[in-house]
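Recall from the previous lesson that a structure prediction takes nothing but the amino acid sequence as input. Here we apply that procedure to Glyoxalase/fosfomycin resistance/dioxygenase domain-containing protein from Streptomyces fungicidicus. The sequence below is the only information supplied.
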Amino acid sequence: MASLLNPYLSFDGNARQALEFYKEVFGGELRLNTYGDFGQAGAGHADKIMHAMLASPAGHTLMGADMPPGMSHAPGNNFAVSLSGDDESALRGYWEKLSDGGSVAVPLEKQMWGDVFGMCTDRFGIPWMVDITRSEG
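The prediction returns the following tokens.
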């Protein structure tokens, strides 16, 4: 699988409705995972979206989630650029270059869902998410 580059949108509690709307617009398959699905229910967030992915027949990919508990939703922090795939070497190389001179919010390391994931903001103020898909095997 080649690396995938796409927008990742953050919502203020209405990610499910927004992504269902985008599915109506673009068609395709929508996968939704809630905070509760990953045992992160806490304070009324069990049914909120932790991660969603819409893959359209035209080849468009859109990802999104509700802001995590404790983080505020505001213009400027409601998007990131997502890089994902299973080419670990290439994705780690992108991570090193993107995070160099920027700031790391989440170190690139194995996460509870099994992938290696990190979040950084590059030296130009653009937020990035890098996800290295776990190997099936």
